[in-house]
Structures are given as C-alpha cells and as structure tokens.
Amino acid sequence: MAKVTEKSLKARCTELNLGPLRTTTFGIRATRTGKGYTVDLQYRDATPPQILLEGGTAAEAAATVEGAAFGAAAVKVAGGDKPEFATRDTFLRQAGERCPRCSTKDIGLGHLSFVKGVITQPCSCQRCSLSWNNLFKLDDYELAVSIDPSAM
Hints:
single chain; alpha+beta; 2 domains; four-stranded antiparallel β-sheet; three-stranded antiparallel β-sheet; flat
C-alpha cells in the first residue's frame, strides 16, 4: 500500500467530489491541521459540515474518505441519490428546524403535550405535507437561583 500524503488525500477528495459524489447532497474534504487530519462532509445546502474524523493520521483520514465514498455508493445501489428521509443524526444536527423529507424550514409547529418526562410536539411541512412529532425527553433539572437584594 502506498504512503498516504496530504496531496494524495486532496486529490482523492477532488476525484470523489467530481465523480461519484457529484450527485449526492454532500462533498467530502480532508484537511491537515496542527493536530492531525480532519475529514468532514460539506453539505450543498445550509447544513453545517459534519466532522467524521478529527486529529487522525493520514491513513485514518484516507480510510474515512473511502468509507464515506462507499456509504454514498451503497445509498445509490439501494435506489436513490439520497435517502427519502433525513437520518436521525442529520435531523438532530439541524435542531429539528427542517422537514425530514424535503429539508424546508417552512414547517408548522403544534401545541406541546407532556407525558411522563416526554414532550411531544406535532409538526407538519407546508411544502410536502409530511406530518411528524418532535420528541423532547427530560434528562436533567436546574434550580432557579434568586438573589435576595436585601442580603447584599
């Protein structure tokens, strides 16, 4: 196996971005930093980049790039350029502000309902008419601290 260099990583990313990843919703980028290599997915919309590897070796970066390319190829073989719905991770990274099907921010939010530590909020997309529920789970509490001005 040939030694992986910064130049070969960048060339492979360019090859993938202009070839097999051209029709996907993302491109891939590998950069060298003072702490090693970072590999991230660069989305073609306003979605923030997703870091796949941070502070890795050149060989780890090359493996991560190939893994992302293989994953994109698997989605194509399964029957599309992108999944019908956003993945759970993508939906959470977007803070639930986009429709999981068409990615628009034009969504209607319903009233919150509370049941045993879970808050449910019905949502609907104004563009594609998809309906779903946002779920919020209780995981902690914080005491409200008030300062008595007379104690100062």
